[in-house]
Amino acid sequence: MSQLDTIRAALAEREAQSLLRVRRIVETPCAPRVTVDGQAMLAFCSNDYLGLASEPALAAALEAGARRWGTGAGASHLVSGHYAVHEALEARLASFLGVEAALSFSTGYMVNAGIAAALAGRGDAIFADRLNHASLVDGAMLSRAEHHRYAHGDVAALERLLKSSNAKRKVILTDSVFSMDGDIAPLEALLNLAEAYDAWLVVDDAHGFGVLGPQGRGALAEAGLQSWRLICIGTLGKAAGVSGAFAAGQRDVIEFLMQHMRTYIFTTAASPAIAHALLTAIDLIESGDARRARLLDLEAQLAEGLGDSRWTLMPSRTPIQPVLLGDNDTALGVAKHLWSQQIWVPAIRPPTVPKDTARLRVSLCAKHTDADVDQLLAALNTIQVPQ
User: Is 207 a catalytic site residue?
Assistant: First the structure.
């Protein structure tokens, strides 16, 4: 069998297991109502939680940024690609989060792929929640440190691992809001363990930033946590509605990351026009209490609508509202039925989630209406799911 035949066989196997992914072509701006593959659809699948991705004020800021700064940075931050507007964005992020410093990146994956290797290496140890995002898993593997994974949210299991470790440097990695479950890590307990066992605590707040905490400052602000050993990671393409990411924390720690993170050093900086737009995005997040209140109303409406039904809505107080289905075929079948009703909800299957936990991932946006959620509920109630 040739290499090409091997690839074709692997694709056929994925399709047979209902694991083959398909890209849809979106022809309109990100919003609850979109045109996809030529069809008008009601979408519950983006991470645009506050509805800022098509916000006119952000589009105007991006245009103004391109006129002021051009379209490209031209080089990495440490060569000639760090512009005054990048510096302003990092200062604004640090002030907003209540920390000393922040470092901006072009994507969240780049932060997560590089941060573990900057903090740990051979002879060190990383302790990671089993349901962490794939980028954190990849970053841990790239670090070449020992990689210990503890059961999801199991603080006692983590403490046993920390207690038995003789590693010189220890790093705890966790999502704040888990992207496929919508639940929140026990952040205060994790920080207590980091303090007790002299470990770093790196928290990926990708799905908490902009949504949780006072003025949308995130899950760590909601929990009231501060420490020099705490590093917050956030993305700027979800609730912030643009693109990019950051790491934030104590000033010397952020300086150390700037000097050691290969995914920061060896890549061209993000467009300064993006940084210009993000300054407006943070203002919109800070003044976005009404948008966050709207999300809470939508979450309550969905939970009430599914409360006495056969559907299992997983516990979540975030815009991520997963409906647990179990096997891959059922998840795909339900998603296809909804698609036939012009409702777009993604079916999430392994390896993104553990085996036998395939689900619909319903993502709510502050721009969804009550009628939108009612339409989803009505469509779900017409589906016959095998018992």
Answer: yes
The DSSP string of 311-380 is -EEPP-SSSEEEEEEESHHHHHHHHHHHHHTTEE-PEE-TTSS-TT-EEEEEE--TT--HHHHHHHHHHH
104, 179, 243, 271: the active-site residue = 179
Q: Which of 238, 276, 367, 368 is an active site residue? A: 238
Residue 238 falls in the annotated catalytic set: yes
And the tokens for 11? Answer: 């694709």
Specify whether the CB–CB gap between 58 and 284 falls below 8 A: yes
Q: What is the pLDDT of residues 21-38, one digit of tens each?
A: 889 999 999 999 999 999
Residue of 86, 170, 207, 368 marked catalytic: 207
pLDDT at 55: 97
Neighbours of 316 (CB within 10 A): 18
Q: What is the DSSP letter of 36?
A: E
Assess whether pLDDT exceeds 80 at residue 318: yes
Average pLDDT of span 53-77 = 98
Using the predicted structure, report yes or no on whether residue 285 has a pLDDT greater than 90: yes
238 and 244 in contact (C-beta within 8 Å)?
A: no
Contact by Cβ (8 Å): 172, 134: no
Domains of the chain: 22-50+289-380 (3.90.1150.10), 56-286 (3.40.640.10)
